[in-house]
Amino acid sequence: MKRYLRVIMPIMAFLVLLFILSNSLSDASQAEAKRDAVVKVVTGKTVQQQFLSCVAKLFHMLEYAAFSFCLTSSVILLGDGLKNRFERILLCGMTLAIADELIQSLFSGRGSKLTDVLIDTAGVMIGYAVAVLCAFVIKKVKNKKGT
Questions:
Q1: Can you tell me whether residue 61 is helix, strand or coil?
Q2: pTM for this structure?
Q3: In principle, which of 19, 64, 74, 81 could form an S-S bond with 120, CB 3.0–4.6 Å?
Q4: What are the Cα distances from residue 65, in Å, to 84, 111, 114, 140, 147?
Q5: How far is CA 146 from its chain centroid?
């Protein structure tokens, strides 16, 4: 496989280079048309649909990050120890993400996707990391003022 990739990847790089330069040599409307065609072939969606989908996924990730941040902050403020805290927060967030996808599958025009659960879980981890970082910084500042 590695030998195969050593041949294919330089060829792919050269083809992408040609695509980039061909866009540079054409006017804006032709370049946009090429880009739109490639995006449509790769994703099955127009550029606008793909953009809106990415924004929606980002917003969903931020919702789960906010949930995780608040939950983690609550656990920290309640004085719970570090033991298994990450695992419990992650399990709680993943359970919520799975429940959310199951609920969405009950409505027409909606569907449940594993990728959405993964995106939501990434949001949970981001929220956890931000909350722990904030707690660490606050603790350091308090310790400096106390000494």
A1: helix
A2: 0.70
A3: 64
A4: 19, 22, 18, 24, 34
A5: 39
Write the DSSP assignment of 85-136 as a string of letters: HHHHHHHHHHHHHHHHHHHHTTSTT----HHHHHHHHHHHHHHHHHHHHHHH
> What is the identity of the amino acid at 117?
V
Residue-level pLDDT at 147: 60
Between CA 20 and CA 23 the distance in angstroms is: 5
Give me the mean pLDDT over the 58-77 stretch. Answer: 92
Q: Which tokens in the block code for residue 22?
A: 């061909």
Chain centre to alpha carbon of residue 137: 25
CA 70 to each of CA 46, 66, 74, 94, 130: distance values in angstroms, whole numbers, following the listed order = 36, 6, 6, 15, 10
Rounded average pLDDT over 44-61:
87
CA dist., res. 40 & res. 34, Å (int):
10
